[in-house]
Design a protein that fits this description.
The structure is a single chain. The chain is α+β, with helices and mostly antiparallel strands. The chain has 2 domains: 10-174 and 321-331, 2-Layer Sandwich (Ribosomal Protein S5, domain 2); 181-318, 2-Layer Sandwich (Alpha-Beta Plaits), CATH 3.30.70.890. The protein has helices at residues 74-88, 113-128, 135-145, 196-206, 210-229, 233-251, 261-275, 299-307; strands spanning 10-16, 19-23, 40-44, 50-57, 64-67, 70-71, 96-103, 157-163, 166-173, 181-186, 281-283, 290-294, 314-318, 325-331. The structure holds ligand 2P0.
C-alpha cells in the first residue's frame, strides 16, 4: 500500500489523444477481463485532444464526473467509478473524486473518444492519488475499462496484443517513423446509436463471418506490422483499408452497420483519388467518420477532394502524435 496520507485535496491533469486503429480490435475473448479477441495496431493522433482533471477531495461524499460540462450517470458513470475504485484500492485513506473531462472533438461517435478519455482518466487518477505505478500497470487498468485506451499511452504507432488472460500494449515505432498524415472526415456531430461494446457483442453472437474475421485479423495485423516496420507505405495502405472493410463487413449480417451514405461517398472519393495516382487509404471505426491516410505529396489533393465531398462537415488534419502526459499536478 502506498499513496497520500494527507487530508488535503490533490489533483492531476492529463492530456491524451485518440488513436485510430489501422488493424482493428473488434471482439472480445470469452470470460472476464475485457481481453480483445484480435491484435490491433494504431496511430496516436495529434490534432484531437482530451483533457481530464481528477481531484481527490476529503470533503466529497461521492464521485462527481462531468464530460463536456455534463454530469455523467448510469453505465458511463460506473465505468469511471471502476477506474477510481481500482486506484483507491492502493491508497491508505481513499477519497472520492471530482473528475472533469473535455474533448475538442465529437464524443462517442467513432472518433475514439473513449480511448483518449479512459487513458487520460486512468493516468490522472493514478497520478492524483500519488501512486508510482509502472506505465504498463496504468495502461492495463485503462485496458480493462476500454481496451483501445491502452494504445493512447504511447506516441506514434502502438499495438495491443492479447496474451492469455490479459493483453499488452506497447509502442511499435516512434511518431516520425513515417511521414503519414491522417485526414479525419467528420460526417456527423451525433453520438453513435450502438456502442462499440454492444456492437462487438452482437457481432460475435450473430454474424456468420465472426470466426473468419478473428482469424483474418491476426494475419492482417502481422502483415501490417511488417509493412509498417519496413516502411512499405503502399502495402500498409492496402492492408489498412482491407482491414477496416473486413471489420465492417463482419457486422452487416448482424445488423451492426456504422456506415452511412456519407461514409460511402468519402470511400468513393478515396478510390477516385487513388485512380488518379494520389496516395489515399481509408479506415472507419465504430461510427460513420472516415479517416484517410495520406503522404506529404498527396495531402493537398486529398484534402481538397475530401472537403468537397457531400456529407463531409469538416476535415481535421492530424498526424502521428504524442502519448498521454501529465500537464499539471499538485495540491488543489
Ligand atoms: C479499435 N474500436 O481498435 C476498434 C475499431 C472501434 C473500431 O476499440 O468495449 O471503446 O471499451 O473495450 O475500446 C472501440 O472499442 O471498446 C474500438 P471497449 P473500445 O480502435
Amino acid at each position: 500500500m502506498s499513496g497520500p496520507q494527507k487530508s488535503s485535496k490533490r489533483f492531476a491533469e492529463v492530456v491524451a489523444h485518440p488513436n485510430i486503429a489501422l488493424a482493428k480490435y473488434w471482439g472480445k475473448r470469452a470470460g472476464e477481463g475485457n481481453v480483445p479477441a484480435t491484435p490491433s495496431l494504431s496511430i496516436t493522433l495529434s490534432g484531437l485532444s482530451t483533457r481530464t482533471r481528477v481531484t481527490f477531495d476529503p470533503n466529497l461524499r461521492e464521485d462527481k464526473v462531468t464530460l463536456g460540462g455534463r454530469v455523467l450517470s448510469g453505465p458511463a458513470q460506473r465505468r469511471v467509478a471502476f477506474v477510481l475504485d481500482e486506484v483507491r484500492k492502493d491508497v491508505v485513506s481513499p477519497q472520492f473524486a471530482e473528475v472533469s473531462s473535455e474533448n475538442d472533438f465529437p464524443t462517442a461517435s467513432g472518433l475514439a473518444s473513449s480511448a483518449s478519455g479512459f487513458c487520460a482518466l486512468t493516468l490522472a487518477a493514478v497520478t492524483a492519488a500519488g501512486l508510482s505505478w509502472e506505465q504498463s500497470r496504468v495502461a492495463d487498468l485503462a485496458r480493462r475499462t476500454s481496451a483501445s485506451s491502452a494504445r493512447s499511452f504511447f506516441s506514434g504507432f502502438a499495438e495491443l496484443v492479447p496474451d492469455g488472460a490479459t493483453a499488452r500494449a506497447a509502442q511499435i515505432a516512434p511518431k516520425d517513423h513515417l511521414p503519414l498524415g491522417v485526414l479525419v472526415c467528420v460526417t456527423t456531430e451525433e453520438q453513435k446509436s450502438v456502442s462499440s461494446g454492444d456492437g462487438m457483442k452482437r457481432v460475435a453472437e450473430r454474424s456468420p463471418f465472426y470466426a473468419a474475421w478473428v482469424e483474418f485479423a491476426a494475419r492482417s495485423f502481422k502483415e501490417m506490422r511488417g509493412a509498417l516496420l519496413e516502411k512499405n507505405t503502399l502495402r500498409l495502405g492496402e492492408l489498412v483499408e482491407e482491414n477496416a472493410l473486413a471489420m465492417h463487413a463482419t457486422g452487416l449480417p448482424a445488423g451492426v452497420i456504422y456506415l452511412k451514405p456519407e461514409t460511402l461517398r468519402v470511400l468513393e472519393t478515396v478510390r477516385t483519388l487513388r485512380a488518379s495516382g494520389v496516395y489515399a487509404y481509408a479506415t472507419m471505426d465504430a461510427g460513420p467518420h472516415v479517416k484517410v491516410l495520406v503522404l506529404p505529396d498527396s495531402n493537398e489533393a486529398a484534402l481538397a477532394a475530401l472537403t468537397a465531398t457531400p456529407g463531409v462537415l469538416r476535415v481535421i488534419s492530424a498526424e502521428p502524435g504524442d502519448g498521454a502526459r501529465v500537464v499539471a499536478e499538485g495540491e488543489a
